[in-house]
């Protein structure tokens, strides 16, 4: 059994300038980013690079249509290396640019098993949640199918993952909140996965510790306290990415995708909407094994009884990002059966990583409880 996958070399720099010099940015490079990131950090360097600003092609998480429009313009640059500087949307699009020739997104899914890397890929995350800089998956809202799905290929691993804490300094608190909760979900789900190993759990449990202790500091000292913790959260996100890159995510992500896809809820927020609901249902089915280890670990961090860990966890997370019921996003009861069907038919990859098997009746039960 494969124990852990750490594909990209991981670098860390104090400043963007140090990175630019060390990686010799110049002709043949395409920087995919956002203008509000590029201008203050890279705009004054006089780099002979091509640049594409993702927001010019649409807002929100990546869709098939957005990716196809960006790919068309990226191909015109003749780039040999793609440098992604941004959050999950930018990173997921860049992974597609690394393997795409001139196919549409549907064709890429059809040939996922035979994709080849066309361009070198460097990924620099500017949020503290995706962990996507060290994984081989791109999450795309397939508008023609009406759901989010993962495109997976080992050819989509970055050649280098680069951590630059200064790029997080202007991160709005709302984005910090959704992305860091996403990282926590990655760490928990990967640690409970049947594919978890001692190596992945080493990274997963350490990420949980760093994130929860950071959240406790912010809850006690206020939002401004996060600034001194940004490097810790960036590293914790990376640890969680390493963990789920091997062990995978599971039902929390699977159940969140129909909500995010139809009602355009941010990925981390839609995960949080499902998070403790899924864990509580796991506990109804299985109380021993790794979930008992997880509950003991959480109880120590949260300083509470093991029977109270999910309620106490939710209390803490609510101080970072208030949780909403599904109906508050516009979901109607008629959606729940359709969401269940979508999970059971399009998210089998994720559902295979559940702590225990969840059938359609259980998925519908979770949705109903969270409605």
UniProtKB/TrEMBL annotation:
Any one GO MF annotation of this record: long-chain-alcohol dehydrogenase activity
Pfam families membership: ADH_Fe_C (PF25137), Fe-ADH (PF00465)
Alphabetical list of InterPro entries matching this protein: ADH_Fe/GldA, ADH_Fe_C, Alcohol_dehydrogenase_Fe
Enzyme Commission no: 1.1.1.192
Keywords for this protein: Oxidoreductase
SUPFAM superfamilies: Dehydroquinate synthase-like
UniProt domain Fe-containing alcohol dehydrogenase-like C-terminal: residue ranges: 177-370
Domain named Alcohol dehydrogenase iron-type/glycerol dehydrogenase GldA: residues: 46-165
Entry's family note: Belongs to the iron-containing alcohol dehydrogenase family.
Record's protein name: Long-chain-alcohol dehydrogenase 1
